Amino acid sequence: MVKMHSIRVVSTLLIVMVIGIFAQGGGRFPTHQTTHHTIHHTSTHHSTHHTPHHTTTRHDVRSREEMEAQVSPVLTSRKVAFSVGKATEPFRAVARLHFRDIFTNIGGGWDPASSEFVAPFDGLYFFIFHAIGAKDSDFTLALTKNTTFEVTAYGTLTTYEHGTNSVVLSLKREDKVYLELQQGAIYENPGNETYTTFTGFII
């Protein structure tokens, strides 16, 4: 009888202890497997959260570099320059000057058929021109944009006087620039020397 009573007491104590542990665990029996699963889940979530953000940043950097590489050739290709000389007849006004020799035509802006510069890009352009007056005449030579003269060079009536001028113009694509002899006459060397020149380039 004593032995049976002892067993009941021990059983009762064990039940009380189990109930107490259960209550401390919030109504659940925490196990090592559950804890390990929770930690593993948190670690996986942390890795998933940061990896896409890092990949996107690298992608953005590559995109900017690719865009700059695509733009650079466009910028460097905007090289425009021409230089012509050796005027051909007619040498008396009123006439557009034509030139025999093309020294430079980078960008293809100079049109020898029409004897004019056609701007391939919008931008600022520098122009300079020079001529010599005829033995018996003064002259007025105008740099003309489309149909409006911008600046003129004048050589006096004294024999073979020089006239030159320069200007910076803001041009739109397809604007045309040429030299027009408005008054008098110019002189060009009959041999291979060049007295009349016209030069321009983008700046």
Structural summary, described in words:
The structure is a single chain. It is built from 2 helices and 11 strands. By secondary structure, the protein is of the alpha+beta class. The strands form 2 sheets. Strands 2, 4, 5, 7, 8 and 10 form a 6-stranded antiparallel β-sheet that branches. A 5-stranded antiparallel β-sheet has the order 3-1-11-6-9, with no helix packed on it. Strand 4 (110-111) and strand 5 form a beta hairpin. The radius of gyration is 45 Å and the shape is globular. The termini are far apart.
Number of strands: 11
Multimeric state: single chain
Broad shape: globular
Order of helices and strands: HHEEEEEEEEEEE
Distance between the termini: 117 Å
Question: Major sheet, described briefly?
Answer: 6 strands, antiparallel
Count every helix, treating DSSP H or I runs of 4 or more residues as helices: 2
Mean pLDDT figure = 77
Portion of residues in beta strands equals 35-45%
